[in-house]
Amino acid sequence: MGNLVGALVLDAIARHPSAIAFREHDRALTFAEAGERIARLANALRAVSPDSGRCVGILLANRIEYAEADLAIALAGKVRAPVNPRLADEERAYALGNVAAETLITEAAELERVAALLPDLPDLRRVLVVDAESALPDIAIGYEAALAGASLQPPRVDVDDEAPSVVRHTSGTTGRPKGAVISARARIAAMRHSMAEEHLPQPDDCFLHASPMGHASGDKVLTFFHRGAANAFVPRFDAARFAADVTELGVTATFLVPTMLRMLLHESVGELGLRNLTYGGSPIDHETRTAAVERFGPVLTQIYGTTETPHPVLILGHEEHLLPEAAEATGRPAQGVDVRLGDAGELWIRGPNVMSGYWNDPAATAEALVDGWYRSGDVGRALPGGWIAVVDRLKDLIITGGLNVYPAEVEAALLRHPAVAEAAVYGVEDPLWGEIVAAAVVLVPGAMVTADELAAHCEGLLAGYKKPRRIEFRDSLPKGATGKILKRALFPDGPQ
In order of start, what are the domains of the chain with their CATH numbers? Predict the structure, then answer.
């Protein structure tokens, strides 16, 4: 027995001591410097308790300390439990309480809100606070103080390959979030699939974390660190200065969600000089994808995965983006991953990257995992050539007059209008048709369009029964921690 992830961390530190490991606009750390801090943090975590398998929450914006925490948690034999800063207090308390987190790593900007949650988190023993400048609760200590008081000798901790390495909560699009358990073996398998199919980092590569690290972006930390390449961090995605971030930080690769791509296109951002621009996390419309390839060059990689099955499950590479026959494709199955279409076209996934189950939820686990297959709840369509198009969520299906309408298809049509920045399509009960198609739309800043004009726009793109019968305009759409639109939150008391 050893420590699969911890061994990769120590090996990278030993092989690339003078290379830059982590980079922000105002600071950088070499692998040797990062290695010392990671070892100290791992020992500080084991000082809280020597028990392997206990969860450590990370509630941080994108920054160097996030990556340090990720790797130190693995080295210490603990389990990473990311908490997205966008979550409300009740959601934060649930995520930490559900996994009985014994330690939380956060930052001074979050301290007041964290302190208010402490009475609801009886398992929490220690809070490490980055940038601590004020009085701390009794169980809290400054992050740098914790490092200074810990040994720099890396701990040697045996961890079973099947033991949990990450517990990441689902976005809650269909109810209460569930904690998907990713084992060390599954984590390494997903990393290897990524390097084989998506992008094989070289020592001169630099990956920019611009989308939340609790989501897919965070999975790239180990991938690039293991290869001796740099990880760069900005606190949040800013379309207006994204090109400057790429240039100033020497970025060669990144991960974005389709909304971010649309924002870059609206900002008229030109070619970025990237070697790879991965996107995923939600469906993308054909026009955005085509415009992005034209603007940024043949460097786009589309990936599909889920919280329960870390990407890539489906992948569409650089050259495949240029093929007319792949215009509708989300991708083809990644090497080592089996995908089949079950009842109603539901994607079933099998492979070494599939989760072990849901944390302390055997009923949900039994429903999701069937004979080694994970039932994704996503609907796919097989295309000629072995490609698969992910159509929509099975539970989002609208049945109007006995006919099936997938919201993603209608959303794609709405997004083809130049005034539309975001769209969410859902079903509303109707006494005649059973359901009618409705949409909530966010406009591009400064744009003006009426509901009738949008409906007319859709007429030439969709069958009549798919056209939205009700369109309302919103300043913003509610989103979960992963950036996905929460359609159930559009109407907390039910559709109107």
Answer: 4-159 (3.40.50.12780), 189-393 (3.40.50.12780), 397-489 (3.30.300.30)
